[in-house]
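Escalated from tier 1: iron/sulfur cluster holo job.
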Amino acid sequence: MPLPSDFQFSQSSLQNYVSCPRRFELLYILKINYPAPVSEPVLEYEQHIERGRIFHQMVHQHLIGLPPDTLSSMELDPILSEWWQNYLKAAPTTQMPLKRCAEFSLSTTLSGWRVTARYDLLAVEPRNKAIIVDWKTSITRPKADVLKTRIQTRLYPLILVEAGKTLNEGYPFAPEQIELQYWYPAFPNHPQHFRYGPEQYTKDRGYIQNLIAEIANTPENGFPLTSNTKLCQFCMYRSLCKRGSTAGDWTEMQSSYEAEDFSVPEFQLDFEQLQEIEF
Ligand code: SF4
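Tier 2 regenerated the structure:
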């Protein structure tokens, strides 16, 4: 079964393909829902996912102008409360350009397919610079050389170059005007910064184009199972793939940057849900 013609790639789908082609096929082409615990203990894992979702919502509301005191008055569990206080204290956006676009989507076309990025925050000084900020609510902080190879690190600046001119007075951003920053509420003093540049842009563009062409040209049942069997313990398809039946340990999952892709969804805020935060 080929990819549906209206399929849109994202950093998440591409990263899933890189981690395990078969998982990409099951998730995005065959759309097989195969419920199984992703990691144990299930409750801790679910609480972590929920914490991440609420943190993203709170920061979004703060960025669009809700007073911090109003947000701080929410009832939060101790971990989320610490993340929020870390965010307020570190004020990671204070020095950033004043034009802010939070939860902002941009799309471009690569190898004939639509590719979309959903940015937690873009801070822009038109004709000068753009900072991409992504809030990372993991409990571990991967090393820079690991993050550098991640699809998100390679794709987000690329899409901003290709599709960001509406934010830059009608001019495309030059790659050297772009910086990407991962900010961790659990590690507020250790954000990860990546400067972009023309060489990286050319390299990334070729890499992503080849990846998309490879996926699009893969025939049905041509998506191999990952050789990294450790990932399977955190994947809901492990029984289907005959890769074991027991879910991996949640804390171990958090220390595996690849396995984390299998758990934490891209936090795409549903604006209908924003009102659900109670003050
Ligand atoms: S169980 Fe393993 S091989 Fe199967 S889809 Fe998941 S990661 Fe891939």
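The beta strands are 8-9, 39-40, 99-110, 113-125, 129-135, 178-183, 192-195, 248-249.
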